[in-house]
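Weekly structure sync, notes
Attendees: PL (lead), two postdocs, one rotation student
Agenda item 3: pending single-chain targets
PL asked that the sequence for the first pending target be pasted directly into the notes so everyone works from the same version. It is reproduced below exactly as submitted, 455 residues in total.
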Amino acid sequence: MAENTTVGQLKEMLVRLYHDNKTSIDANVGEGIRSVRGKALGDFEKLGIPTRKVEAYRYTNLEKVFAEDYNAEFSAERFKVDLREIFKCEIPELDTHVVLVLNGFYYHDNKITGLPEGVIITSLAQASVSHPGIFNAHYGKYVNTEEDSLAALNSFFAQDGVFVYIPEHVKIDKPVQIINLCFSYKNLRITRRNLIVAEKGSELHVIVCDHTLCRRKYLSNSLTEIYTGANAKTEYSKVQNENNLSAQLSNTYIHQEADSKVVSNILSLHGGFIRNNIFVKLNGERAENHTYGLFISDSNQHISNYTSVLHAKPYCNSNQLFKGILSENATGAFNGKIYVGKDAQKTLAYQKNNNILLSPSARMNSKPQLEIYADDVKCSHGATAGQLDEDALFYLRSRGIREAEARFLLMYAFANDVISNIGTRHLRDRIIDLVDKRLRGKLSKCNECEIHCGN
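Predicted structure, written out during the meeting:
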């Protein structure tokens, strides 16, 4: 596609792509998925692809990403090879319910056993047909396609992904691990959609791992809705480790009821272009939300995080901590917003973004925001960007530690403020190992891949 293609032309191309393949897109899905397409399409046609004139995307250039030439597939391809053999999990000690997703489609050979009574883990498309009551009560209910066109784009293209349902007062002892794999010998446009429902009093941990298995260009647009009912607890960990040619657009919508608790860990370890949007609505009294993010970028990578936490009810707590380590020509952005409604008295809300720049050419833009309409609240925000602490570096070197190792120890200590909040020990230990490799430049672009597909 020509580099001078306008955003208007890109929007028209995507709309045309949808209309030309609508029959395939609507195949095998229930009315719950089809019913949201019309409004989402209309919203996308109004909004178009976000440009840097849109405040939330001021420091993120999506036009260049969308202008690349991608293929699109609207049906699941059944590979003769066993993905479980060619892909080795980076967290082998982690005992999880593993769900593979290939190019946006639920893998045909997933086998999930030993689930508590009433728990459902299945294909999003299948759930829309076989469990319409539960599915339709939640699908598309927490997404605002009128405000974010990436969410609208996902909503009218969405075909499949993962559906997780936890009944009232049920606790899953093992995490649910969703492994998203990009595997194609051609450049590919991918749409992923997940719906996670944790009913009243339930407990759940979901781990999402994103990987590329070939060195090709992939543009993935992912959207996950998470409903956490009254007095329920959800932990959501997302590990992004894709190749330098990849572009990943990720939207997460979290809806919480009274006395619920959600902890989110967004860990961006590798990827050419990453945009994470996290939207949280605290819709019940005494709801509690903790959102943590860590990103490490080098070369010409760009990683951008946008958060919006809406306090709609009183006595709720929220805490955001995002940290970035940038080197070489990497660029990053953080745009965080806390919104406190007029009825949300006794709110406690905190937001912090800290960044380390390891080279003169690395760039970081940070914009924390507060919008408060209640008068009895405690809210704060802050952002920093700087180099490693020279005094701390001098102290370590004076104790006989080599400069390179001293720098690594300081970077690890900086990152550990986020890593330490991961609740599952084996996952936390493995993330520590991956961060160690990433900081030392040892994490490969297609880590753990046994295909060796070449350039």
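Discussion points:
- Confidence is low (pLDDT under 50) at residues 445-455.
- The longest helix spans residues 403-419.
Action: rotation student to compare against the earlier draft before next sync.
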